[in-house]
Amino acid sequence: MTTADPPRLGSAPADLYEAPAPSGPYPPTEEMLAEPVKPKLRGAQEDRLRKVWEGPKGWRILSDVNNQTVGVWYSATCFAFMLGAGVLALLMRVQLAVPDNDFLSAGTYNQFYTMHGSAMMFLFAVPMFEAVSILLLPAFLSARDLPFPRLSAFGYWSFLVGGVFVLGSILFGVGPQSGWFMYPPVSMQEEGMGPDIWLLGLSFIEVASIAAAVELIVGVLKCRPPGMRVNLMPLYAWYVLVVGGMILFAFPPLIAGDFLFELERALGWPFFNPEKGGDPLLWQHLFWIFGHPEVYIIFLPSIALTAMVVPTFARHPIVGYSWIVLSAVGTGFLSFGLWVHHMFATGLPTMSLGFFSAASEAVVIPTGIQLFAFVATLMVGRVKMGLPMLWIAGSLAIFTAGGLTGVMVAVAPFDWVVHDTYFVVAHLHYTLFGGFVFPVIAGVYYFAPVVTGKMLSERLGRWAFWLSFAGFNITFLPMHLTGLVGMPRRVFTYPGGLGWDWLNMLSTVGAFVIAAGFAVLAWDLIRPKSKEPKAPRNPWEAGTLEWSADPDESWGARSVPYVTSRYPLWDQDEFVERANAGQGYIPDAPEMRRETLITSVIDARPIQVLRVAEPTWITLVAAFFTAGAFILPVFHLYTLAGVSGALAIATVVVWLYRSARDHPEAETKDAGLGLRLPLYVSGPAAVGWWGMWITMLGDSTAFASLVFGVFFYWTARPDFPPEGAVHADLPLALASLALIAVAWALTLGARMLNTRGRPWLATLCHAIGPVLTLAGGAALVLAVRDLDPTTHVYPAIMWALVVWTTAHLGVGVLMQLFCLFGLLTADFGPRHDAPLWNVALFWHFLGLTALVTVACVALLPRLL
Amino acid sequence: MQRRAGTTTLAAPVRRVAPLALILLAACDGPQSALSPGGEDAIQLGWLFWVMLAGSVVLWLFINGLFFLVTRRHPHPMSRKLAEGTIVAGGIGLPLVVLTSLLAYGLSIMPHQREPGDGLRLRVTGEEWWWRVEYWPEGATEPVVSANEVRLPVGQRSDLELHAADVIHSFWLPGIAGKTDMIPGRVNHISMEPVEAGTFRGQCAEFCGLSHALMAFQAVTMEPADFDGWLAAEAEGISENARQAEGHAIFQEQGCGACHALRGTEARGEVGPDLTHVGGRGTLAAGVLPMTAEALADWIAHPEAFKPGVEMPGYNHMDEAELLTLATWLEGLK
């Protein structure tokens, strides 16, 4: 590889409207990589980068959007919420220490157990994955930041406000008290605002989670360093892809469920009310289609952390890389086929119980492969134990026990015995502590130097480990027996003399020992360390990219290296020195703008230098208005909520428009190592387009869940649709579909005409489009005007589809107007057409949604 | 002598372990324990558990022992072939063998347990927070109504039709069989076959609101002849003596009949439990209180104190003597 001929990395521009192709030599030769940077230039580059990436100071730090700052806030917030939920657990254990205790009232206990589960799941486990990934993923990839820093910040602020709102409700005694699973009808009948707090607060957080998932997936796909083909990615990045994908397909069914639930609670549409044709089991299906993948959404990132830690301590590359990747993907797929094992006692047919038992057991195979791959790596390596490995060993001991009890409860008949008992409480805590908490703490001890530049205390770390490990087993090992001798879950008290007394007392004592362990850990994290020496750059002698950066600098990667190995620090010559001397890509910031390198999806060829966002307040403002839209309805302040929602939309539109019209000052720039890369790209080459694609996958999943609802009622209920039901107006529905189809064609046409240099025709398309869309939406609503959604589930679910589609048509209109405005002001044009591409992509999904809605609302009932 | 010495050495560890085993076995006992079974299904499920437990302990020791070995005992490099073999053997081979046999064994007991019972038919409805129980012996046109206690004949497979009046509950009698949910708008079944006469405790297993913890019941398994005798008595209304008693007058005066039925009187309320033979049940208020006159009096005066959120209003306006008369009378309705 000595040739310096620049291979064409993109096709030559067909006309002057397309982005220029990258030009220059690629891949870089050894001589190019070895070429030193002059000390004076190096100093100047460092000064510029430091200034560009310097975060805001003082209270203005709240406007920061950089992944390192937001990632730390995010992780710390998750940790704080976890401590809060943990305190609730301690209070519950005090109540259960002795029989017939009156330390907590029934209502308070029910609020506590509901909040403990909800907070641990939604405010700790899932966001912790996102927090850690936002913090560390760029370091794993030597990227300067993630592609949408403002989205991370928006997600964080939404999470913070939503989390404080949900968790804070407990302080006022108005928390939800029907369990983290919120089964109707009991949750539907619950008085007060508890269930609304749960539904709206958590929907809000789920939306933030999906936003983070989009960010992370695009980050892995597009922000890798040059040369890092998919088969060279650190395993963590693979797990981000798998888990991000799972979030996209798992959270939307719950959002759809929340949507139906809130419609029933607020407007009396009887989706779960059997007296009006509804069925409480639909909620259970939607909840567990979310809830079971959720378990793996929590578990897989911890495996990913373990996969980063184990090779370092084995001092050997991971054995069975492909096995692990395939297993992770396999687990992801399988996890969507197991949800019914949460419903073994609901009286489903024996045949489906057998099927779901077998499917649940099948997940042992990919899980086993991942665990044994770690063992295999340790076999071939020269193992040197360290504190992170102690936590990993503890996690294995706990997780395998939880996995084995999981194998037991997956056998349907045995589940009939232990379902909803303390046996399952023990099982799930074994899997979550072993498969999540302990690996994350291992990660905290392992990655601390990457984030803070300081090591945590070995001595305190051992104390924390042995206290929490011993406390955990004292608490939860006896609970297996507690369940088998008959104690059900979710009981605020129990009578003495049933053989449960001493077991409960033991568990309570153990809970306080765990708390002591966590107190030591928390102290180790927050104690002042300014007097301690700086940790060595790579204290564990690891081989992956995150150990090449200087944690004291906010620029992330000093220059983006060319990567040819899974463990470049072990395998590539002078890797750290070269990257830090600026002998890689984008080593400078002459225009004083924050930049990161965008590469192609499969083989990571450099394709663009992306300008990423600088600190801004707009994300914070948008998050607070969005919070208003979700939180105010809890207090029945619908007008204010509407105003808040409108302001949120306005803020987001301003935010997006400002970046859409921010065109780079040049077509291309020198990206280092002789390579010139474009600054502005659009369509499938752009990260925004990928972001839209991935978001719409999640959105369509939510819509598909509503359609699943239609078919569920159709198959499960004999009276769907009821005799003599009023159907939707067929001609109007078809007219609506025709109008929307034309609006769709116009939107697509606008993008094509604009790209071909006819922006005035595109403007015309976007002027007519919104009118047709609004007319189409109106026709759709009119088509169902005679259906009364409060009378029966049939009109209710039809209306739900229409409401969903109409809301999306509203977004579609906004997007068309957004493009119209940009075209009129010439902010968008043939060269700067990224918004038109993204809007057209949204409209593909919208067109499909409208088609399916009209088919379900107007055609299907006539065929049934 | 030789042999005795040998026996002693053998017996020493046994002697040391035996008390521990006894303690553990005792720890498995209890009226609501799935590990001291009195029903055919529970016996099968108990075996399933012990087999799985033994297998799990072996597998846990194997995996964690292997980890300990490669990290602590033998940290030096081993062959790559061995390592890759471990992934295939441990990740695929082992689970395939173990899980296939487990599924074959575990699922094989399912169809029988799910068969509709061919013996006595019962209909149990979950209410917030008590159980409405109806017996439908063969050929019956109307049920024998009871509440908060289930009696089952030994040696036949009874069929329980499960309903829910308001929210989801779950019917669970661990000593006899597994559990099945009671879901509004759906009809579920569970069948169970007690093998010995005795008293067991069951409880609602699905969270059903504020006092979910206080929704239990007593189950009495009886020899068929005893059961038939009991059911015949249960089908009767209250006795003429009871009807004439002062307690009944108070019952009527306080309007108890608006919610509770007393067969053989005008009281036909269906909101609360049928009280025709309330004194014959082992517990009061769905397993919350003992069936004594004092407990009845306390309950009638302050039900909320024993079961938060209960629908029954408190009768604390009644004077002590009247209350006790009513309670004693109710306790006497066997």
From TrEMBL, chain A:
Compartment(s) where it occurs, according to its Swiss-Prot or TrEMBL record: Cell membrane
Segments of this protein annotated with the region Disordered: 1-32
Record-level Gene Ontology MF annotations: cytochrome-c oxidase activity; heme binding; metal ion binding; oxidoreductase activity
Domain Cytochrome oxidase subunit I profile: 47-561
EC number of this enzyme: 7.1.1.9
Membrane topology, as annotated: Multi-pass membrane protein
Gene3D superfamilies named among the record's database cross-references: Cytochrome c oxidase, subunit III, four-helix bundle, Cytochrome c oxidase-like, subunit I domain
Protein name: cytochrome-c oxidase
Native source organism of the sequence: Rubellimicrobium mesophilum DSM 19309
UniProtKB/TrEMBL annotation, chain B:
Listed EC numbers: 1.9.3.1
Reactions that this protein is recorded to catalyse: 4 Fe(II)-[cytochrome c] + O2 + 8 H(+)(in) = 4 Fe(III)-[cytochrome c] + 2 H2O + 4 H(+)(out)
UniProt keyword annotations, A-Z: Copper, Electron transport, Heme, Iron, Membrane, Metal-binding, Oxidoreductase, Transmembrane, Transmembrane helix, Transport
GO terms under cellular component: membrane
Record organism: Rubellimicrobium mesophilum DSM 19309
Transmembrane spans: 48-70, 82-107
Record-linked Pfam families: COX2, Cytochrom_C
InterPro entries documented for this protein: CcO_II, CcO_II-like_C, Copper_CuA, Cupredoxin, CuRO_CcO_Caa3_II, Cyt_c-like_dom, Cyt_c-like_dom_sf
Family from the record: Belongs to the cytochrome c oxidase subunit 2 family.
Designated name of the protein: Cytochrome c oxidase polypeptide II
Domain Cytochrome oxidase subunit II copper A binding: 117-233
GO molecular function: copper ion binding; cytochrome-c oxidase activity; heme binding; oxidoreductase activity
PROSITE patterns reported for this sequence: COX2 (PS00078), COX2_CUA (PS50857), CYTC (PS51007), PROKAR_LIPOPROTEIN (PS51257)
Domain spans labelled Cytochrome c: 242-334
Localization of this protein: Membrane
The protein's enzyme class: oxidoreductase
GO aspect biological process, one term: ATP synthesis coupled electron transport
